[in-house]
Amino acid sequence: DVIIDAGACGLEESTVIDLTEDVPQLVRHLHGVLKNWVQLQHEYECFFFVADFHALTTDYEESQNIEQYTFDTVVDWLAAGVNPGTATIFVQSRVPEHAELHLLLSMITPISWLERVPSFKDQQQKLSDRDLATYGFLGYPLLQAADILVYRAGWVPVGADQVAHVELTREVARRFNHIYGREPGFEDAAEAAVKKMSKKAARMYGNLRKEYLEKGDGEALERARALLAEQQNLSIGDRERLFGYLEGGGRIILPEPQSLLTKTAKMPGLDGEKMSKSYNNYISLREEPDSVEAKIRTMQTDPARVRRSDPGEPENCPVFALHEVYSTEEVRKWATQGCRSAGIGCVDCKKPLIDAINEEQLIYRQRAQQFEEEPDLVHAILAEGSEKARNLARETLDDVKEAIGISH
Length: 408
Ligand code: SF4
Description:
Elements: E1 2-9, E2 17-18, H1 27-43, E3 45-50, H2 52-59, H3 66-79, E4 88-91, H4 97-106, H5 111-115, H6 118-126, H7 135-138, H8 140-149, E5 155-158, H9 163-180, H10 186-194, H11 199-215, H12 218-230, H13 236-246, E6 258-261, H14 289-297, H15 318-326, H16 329-340, H17 346-373, H18 375-404
Parallel strand pairs: 1-2, 1-3, 3-4, 5-6
Helix pairs in contact: 3-17, 4-8, 4-18, 8-9, 10-13, 11-12, 12-13, 14-17, 15-17
The structure holds iron/sulfur cluster (SF4).
């Protein structure tokens, strides 16, 4: 199963980072995205990319530094433990098939589908200082759809606010398959493919298909899909055909991806609000120890703890929210009890937090420095990743163009 995810682009959405602003990357990115990637790369075939085309959709006038920020971003990924030997790391603009598929999908996508994507209006209001009445901005979610479909990805790790984008991708894929998946003699080809299965598997497939078509039983559909996935002696084309035949439709050229709702650590800012560059309440990924210490020392605590002798409530304290991310259960227990009984002061409570953050940052900064000192290595990783991604994307485009009838 292929997973695709972009970690840097033009919008400051839930966890992505902005490629066009010279601002430090935040620890929120490490806890919200990168730690997940490090885990996912062992469980799936992962493609992680810097979405530099997307950066232009909102900041087309600020394009001068995109290359440098792309480099910095990738150094951060590598320092966090994303492993180019396991996952494919690449840059979107180095795989022009993203743009080609975007163009082809734009031909079949109704404008109303794009206008109703929730973030379209939200972002237009939020970024009212920019001119977002552009063709590129409206097509932003469709470019995301192309990013996913060009690898025929099975899964997209998303936060709840991104589910609508994956849903749009599914609708676009369905529409494409519906329009272009029918080929002359499709039913005969599907029946011939069924015969390549063992008798038992063919019978099961037939029964499940019938059950689905007659009763709309989704479970039967899922079981039939699983059965097909196990059939080793079917070619990819046969399997796509039979996936499509299941639903009474045509060949599935672009499979519909699923959202993978990832559990992300909540990473509040220093004031308890969402950590953000614009609120200036952040710790950056490469923050120096002295600066981390100064920021934590001056953090607000539970407003009820006016004096050292006043008991407090960790739930009302942004310092404790950071303990939730960085501290062991033992330290959290110590802080909770000490806070509620006024047994410890806030200065005591902050000390182990400062140490834990600095310990994590130290390893991270050391690794980042190694990659910064070897820029050629980073460039080679991106060149190799982009080539690998491109090979896969080309295969999809070949099938897409053949289905449309422009493969020449
Ligand atoms: Fe917050 Fe810790 Fe102070 Fe309690 S003791 S108010 S949790 S900093």
